[in-house]
Structure to design on (410 residues):
């Protein structure tokens, strides 16, 4: 299998961490240069019609896009260690947690970065600075919730490490482009959780 | 079980259609008045900390939030008719299709409506009109792709009706608030698909 990634982009990183956590080996990583708009070429759009990374090319040649869908596939190929739930009920509660950190933490962080950071002007065109700034304010409500949750549980979805921790970690780390650090912003439990995840071998790349 | 919904809101509608398609009965629907900000009350936040609908309250009292996570749970309770994939590989490809229409069709439509329609000013505060307008333009790339896909396949994820059709339908229908009709906008295959879905008993409510 081949995994099309973009160095430093948060969504490919989610899959890269997932693969290391699962102990899956033998997937070739192929970098796509976003700033050179390589993802918008006809060749890449044949694999990803809306020009998104990551894409996993299966051994039969089929391209599978969308971060979380790629993880669903990989979890099927190697169920343990389990990161997405062992039965439908656990799968649902982990998916709830994963969506919350994706939609209410990672998405506003992405909007904040993409609409206000000069380095993203090529990829987010046009940028709407005031909208981006307001997203950083909306983000705070989700961080208050998340910090409170992490005061009484070790991981995003409860008592064990799951895909939701990977999603939240890649989102929070992307905010470092905005000099954001949870502890300095008043979220000590989120900072402690972030430091635990940052110490894992899977997040060293 | 109890399902907390908001009349006419697209995300609760996704679950409502899913339930009818599955043939699941006996779930009590409880309306939440968004314009009265009932979702922001302490009582509702105990079920949904970030004040989102829908929420499914399980028989054991646990609140399960997030549209797609609720569907994952319900698919587990009643696997047939299958709407989310019968094995991990099929689940992954349907999830890919579902995410594409959620993130690249429904989300820009939501941003377009929420940031430009006067009726949404209470819920989306502040509104950023120019950003909203630009989202309607970004939407077109996804609609070109989707219209092209539906020229050669009957459903969003391929040859059978799945959760991805429900997501796309609720997104496209939400755009009616902006007087958007796929056929008039130059997407004839999307219009034909929309009309087939709109004729199903599950979408009559």
């Amino acid at each position: 299998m081949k995994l099309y990634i973009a160095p430093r982009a948060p969504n490919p990183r989610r899959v890269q961490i997932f693969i290391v956590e699962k102990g899956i080996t033998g997937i070739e990583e192929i970098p796509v240069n976003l700033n050179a708009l390589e993802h918008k070429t006809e060749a890449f759009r044949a694999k990803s019609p809306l020009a998104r990374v990551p894409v996993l090319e299966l051994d039969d040649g089929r391209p599978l896009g969308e971060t979380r869908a790629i993880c669903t596939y990989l979890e099927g190929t190697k169920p343990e260690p389990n990161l997405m739930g062992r039965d439908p009920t656990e799968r649902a509660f982990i998916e709830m947690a994963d969506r919350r950190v994706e939609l209410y933490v990672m998405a506003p962080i992405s909007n904040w970065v993409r609409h206000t950071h000069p380095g993203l002007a090529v990829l987010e065109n046009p940028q709407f600075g005031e909208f981006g700034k307001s997203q950083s304010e909306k983000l705070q409500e989700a961080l208050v919730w998340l910090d409170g949750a992490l005061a009484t549980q070790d991981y995003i979805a409860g008592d064990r490490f799951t895909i939701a921790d990977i999603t939240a970690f890649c989102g929070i780390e992307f905010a470092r482009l905005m000099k954001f650090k949870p502890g300095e912003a008043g979220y000590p439990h989120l900072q402690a959780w972030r430091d635990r995840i940052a110490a894992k071998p899977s997040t060293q790349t």
User: Anything to note?
Assistant: Chain B has a mean pLDDT of 97. The longest helix of chain B spans residues 88-116. The radius of gyration of chain B is 17 Å. Helices of chain B lie at 10-22, 42-45, 67-77, 88-116, 129-149, 163-174, 188-198.
